Structures are given as structure tokens and as C-alpha cells.
Request: fold
Amino acid sequence: EPEVTQTPSHQVTQMGQEVILRCVPISNHLYFYWYRQILGQKVEFLVSFYNNEISEKSEIFDDQFSVERPDGSNFTLKIRSTKLEDSAMYFCASSVGRRGEQFFGPGTRLTVL
Amino acid sequence: GQQLNQSPQSMFIQEGEDVSMNCTSSSIFNTWLWYKQDPGEGPVLLIALYKAGELTSNGRLTAQFGITRKDSFLNISASIPSDVGIYFCAGPFEGGSQGNLIFGKGTKLSVKP
Reply:
């Protein structure tokens, strides 16, 4: 069964460093998303992406964040200058349609020291 | 803003018991999604509901989309130890155009063998 994959599973970085989190969405899906979950809290929406551009973004997704689909399969989230409060699980998700069921990857645990 | 309220926050039950949890909102939702999350993993989609009044089953799981479109419940029958996890309801934020999901805070289920 097709699934969303994410790498790395765990990323440790120093405050101020740039990180790139990678995702491979399900191949026939057209809508891509990034969510984050701070430990013990609910899942929060960051950004949605369709047709090679950002569709929606939340207040969390400030100028330090960017997303890219560099090729036909990968979808990346970049944090330019990480802060301590960026420590969280980051989930990629994808869906066939705009209102369709979203399928989540296993997540990348980001730890900022 | 739109919020999803889940209850109960946590449940401790004996293996074999039935479980019921629900999700309410002050806003109308046109889609309800139920996810399960194991520790350190991504949310896994259990059931999707698209129509008011809809009752859908997936094995021992049954979920209903409330008639008012402001609530949904999830039932698990004859619970087993692998049902342990956090159950989230989610729905698309109606102010967004790309179906970005809002999540509830989750119901944590513990099952005693």
C-alpha cells in the first residue's frame, strides 16, 4: 500500500542552524501539507502546497520557513534559522483532492539545542 | 477561531470493553476524520465521514457524523491491547481553501489486558 515517507526520522541541530526536512508524498496525490506537533500537544497545520505553490499557511509559518517541490517526488520543509521552540515532530501529509482524506508520514523529530 | 473539543481526555478500560469518544465544535464541519496516533508515529487515518448523519464502520470501529454537523463520535467495540494510543478527530478549516485540517487535542486510550 502506498505511503508517505519522511527523512530523517530524527534531526538534532544547534539553534540558528538551517534544517531541511524531506518528504515523499503518495505518488498520485496532488495536495501536500506540513504539520507540526509539539510534544504532548495537538497536531497543528503549517502550510499546504498545490500546483507548485503555497496555497495556505498558518501564523506559525513565518519567514523562517519555506517549502519546495524540487522534483517530481520530493517535498521539503526548510527552517532557515532554527529556534529552541521549533523543537517538535514535523509531519508531511498528502491527499488526492482538496477535501480528501489526508495521509500522514511517520514524522521527523526535530530537536533544537 | 474554529476548535475541536474531544472528550474524554483519557480513558482506562479493560480488554474486551467497548469504548466511546466524541468530538464537538461550535462551528459546522463538512468532513470529519478520525485518526489514531501511536507514540512517536504519525497519525493513521481510521475513518472519514463526509455527510451529516453518516455512520461508517471499519472493523471494530464505528464513527458517526452528527446531524447538526457540529459533532462526531467514534466507538470501538471489544477493545484489544493494540487499540492503545491517542485518537484524534480532525476536520478541514472552513476558512481555508485547501482543506487544511484542524485537530482536536485527542483522547488517550489505555487498555488493561
